[in-house]
């Protein structure tokens, strides 16, 4: 089993930045892909970004490309999502997830955190 804890969410003005963190514990040797998803009220959970275990492969949703950067610190078993130039439409609860590969499909990820709220005011 893998346990995931997200942090770093908050309230920020449009154009601002936040850095989310996701710390993993448990059977982390199983992890080959780590992803960020987000879910706004009344919306489906959507893919944001993903990174491979070694960091050599990244994948971003078109809506965040050029603004968000996913990275990881393997020694600390922590995943980061640097979010710049935030917009009100980025408001959502952000979740990290781990799985056996890097992919956009939710079904690729078997372990999920409880999320951290990001609110962007206009």
* Proportion of helical residues: under 10%
Counted by DSSP, the helix tally is: 0
Shape: globular
The H-and-E topology, N to C, reads as EEEEEEEEEEE
| Rg value | 13 Å
Tell me about the biggest sheet?
7 strands, mixed
Q: What is the residue-mean pLDDT, rounded to a whole number? A: 94
Query: Which structural class matches the secondary elements?
Result: mainly beta
Task: Give me the secondary-structure topology.
Layout: E1 2-7, E2 10-13, E3 18-26, E4 33-39, E5 46-52, E6 58-60, E7 68-73, E8 78-83, E9 92-99, E10 109-112, E11 116-121
Would you write up a description of this structure?
By secondary structure, this protein is mostly beta strands. Helices cover 0% and strands 54% of the residues. Strands 2, 4, 5, 6, 9, 10 and 11 form a 7-stranded mixed β-sheet that branches. The chain has a 4-stranded antiparallel β-sheet with strand order 1-3-8-7, with no helix packed on it. It is globular, with a radius of gyration of 13 Å. The model has no long low-confidence stretch (mean pLDDT 94).
């Amino acid at each position: 089993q893998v346990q995931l804890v997200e942090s770093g969410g908050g309230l920020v003005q449009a154009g601002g930045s936040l850095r989310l963190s996701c710390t993993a514990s448990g059977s982390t040797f199983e992890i080959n892909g780590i992803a960020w998803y987000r879910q706004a009220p009344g919306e489906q959970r959507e893919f944001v970004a993903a990174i491979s275990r070694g960091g050599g492969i990244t994948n971003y949703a078109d809506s965040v490309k050029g603004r968000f950067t996913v990275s990881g610190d393997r020694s600390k078993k922590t995943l980061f999502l640097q979010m710049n130039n935030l917009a009100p439409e980025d408001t959502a609860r952000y979740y990290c997830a781990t799985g056996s590969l890097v992919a956009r499909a939710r079904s690729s990820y078997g372990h999920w955190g409880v999320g951290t709220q990001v609110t962007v005011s206009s």
